Amino acid sequence: MRVQIASEPGRPDRDNEDFAAAAPGLFVVVDGAGAPAGVASGCEHSVAWYAHNLGGMLLAAARDIGVGLDEALAIAIERVNALHAGTCDLGHPGSPSATVAMARVNGERLEHLVLSDAVVVLDLTDREPMIITDDRLARVITRLDESAELSAVGSREHTERLRSRVERLGSYRNQPGGFWVASTKPEAAEEAFAGSTPLGELDAVALLSDGASRLADRFDLMSWLELLAVLRKAGPTELIARTREVEASDPDGARWPRGKASDDATAVWWSAGD
């Protein structure tokens, strides 16, 4: 099995809040949901700590193919809870959280799971690729942000708006009619998007954090077929490098409004024929 993985922080002076790993027939990407400075979390641990521990627990739980991917995610959330229940307020609405993308070979099928805005891209034989992501967070943000006008990334106004958004999102997180992420509620795993595909219909699979999918789903500079072509020919490192070039061309977010000028970016690529 040949798997390619690349992960890079959005800024060299900050921790990478993404996690990626693979085991035989199993692939995991966890994207920690960072928050602006000043937003309380009730937790003494960082978002990177949460994402990396959740990823490790998830990899361990999902290696048992008798356990469903949603069940594995619930188990991993419970196990991370146990690591810091004695030191942190797990009932706080700002507790560290993360998005998740997983894929696993089980017999003659590839299973997948996505929770929140991570992305699984199935490169299908003789068909258009299948894109699996969860847009419920984006829909809530659209409802919250009445003004379409965004200030320059990094400006005081931009930071204040992001802080206000994150605080308001707390009442929608892991709630019916809101959005679902991995945090402290194991039942959030039941809300993940999951399915499976026959291996015979699959050429490859990509797992992407939203920082690595931007060229296709935020900047609209690539089709998904073109993104897959980059991964196939040059691998995840090249995809992230091209993303950084585009981000650097628009540092203030004037052309592509966004929360961060550069986000942590992680990509896992597996060719089914390898």
UniProtKB/TrEMBL annotation:
Q: Which InterPro entries match?
A: PPM-type-like_dom_sf, PPM-type_phosphatase-like_dom
Domain named PPM-type phosphatase: residues: 25-226
Q: What is an example of a Pfam family matching this protein? A: PP2C_2
The region called Disordered is annotated at 246-265
Composition bias (Basic and acidic residues) maps to 246-263
Question: Any idea what this protein is called?
Answer: Integrase
Which species is this record about? Answer: Actinomadura physcomitrii
